[in-house]
Design a protein that fits this description.
By secondary structure, this protein is of the alpha/beta class. Helix content is 46%, strand content 23%.
Length: 304
């Protein structure tokens, strides 16, 4: 079955068009555009007009691609920013009415389960696995073994939320960065029991922070998903990336080789959160994957 999944996230709006057959996913088209829908939500509790219009402009492009591909099923999923916003339901209705996409606002539990399912497709992972999905407004932490979820939580730590909350100087000051890391560390510690954190054997990191970290480490220009898939990011590498990225003013950060310039405003928070996750779970590295919530939702859509 040919399916289309649009993921309207807090930081980016993404599209996957794929053929799904017997549990396998063959990507035909994949796009990601930074739209910052969650801009200001942490402070105001509402989706702003300008962020919504940025998303709608991207959805016009995506809707045309979906029609051209002849997709048999299509859906849009919305996560942290829409869950948190008082006008989130009205936004979802506009997505449905204007673009023919049945907008589905995922609960944190659903988001975590879809992320785990996508990240473990076709894998032969042994032991207990942590899947880390760092988003704009939340971070999903899912622990499981042999494709079965044993623990999952959606935490209120995200690259847009924590950038707006803590990073007010360009470049951020050491105190601002320390406050961000302490906040993220506290959120993770409160959300995940120690006994869960200490029984994990390995980690897969999905979504923009992880894939951008891999692209920076590899110096990829242009971005190459085949090279990113399976790349290992260890903590010393992430420490070095954070030191570099946090030392640069935004305009210089945009020029870092391998980094999408549109992700420069939030990459510092993202790398900091990833480091705090690895530290909390006492893991030395994470394997980066392009297979994420888009894959998980595509599999669900084809089976339903």
């Amino acid at each position: 079955m040919r399916v289309a999944v649009v993921d309207i996230g807090t930081n980016s709006t993404r599209l996957l068009i794929a053929d799904v057959d017997a549990g396998s996913v063959s990507e035909l088209d994949r796009r990601s555009i930074v739209t910052r829908l969650g801009e200001g939500v942490d402070a105001t509790g509402q989706l702003g007009d300008a962020p919504q219009e940025r998303v709608f402009a991207v959805l016009e492009e995506y809707a045309a691609a979906i029609e051209a591909a002849g997709c048999e099923a299509r859906t849009a999923v919305m996560t942290s920013a829409v869950r948190d916003a008082s006008n989130g339901a009205a936004f979802a209705a506009r997505v449905r009415d204007r673009y023919g996409l049945e907008g589905r606002t995922l609960s944190g539990d659903e988001e975590a389960n879809f992320s785990f399912r996508g990240a473990t497709v076709g894998g032969t992972h042994e032991g207990r696995l942590l899947v880390v999905d760092i988003g704009g407004g939340s971070t999903e932490l899912v622990v499981g073994a042999q494709r079965k979820v044993e623990f999952h939580v959606s935490t209120q730590a995200g690259v847009v939320r924590h950038s707006e909350r803590h990073l007010h100087t360009d470049p951020p000051t050491p105190d601002e960065l320390a406050a961000l890391r302490a906040d993220a560390r506290g959120v993770i510690a409160a959300a995940v029991p120690v006994e869960v954190r200490l029984r994990v054997d390995d980690a897969i990191a999905v979504a923009g922070t992880a894939t951008q970290g891999a692209a920076i480490d590899l110096g990829l220009e242009p971005y190459d998903p085949a090279k990113v898939e399976g790349h290992v990011l260890d903590r010393p590498t992430l420490d070095a990336q954070l030191a570099l990225l946090a030392s640069l003013p935004l305009e210089q950060r945009r020029d870092v080789r391998g980094l999408d310039p549109d992700r420069a405003p939030t990459i510092v928070a993202g790398v900091a959160i990833l480091l705090e996750v690895l530290g909390a779970f006492e893991l030395g590295h994470a394997t980066v994957s392009e297979r994420d919530i888009l894959w998980g939702v595509a599999l669900d859509l084809a089976s339903g």
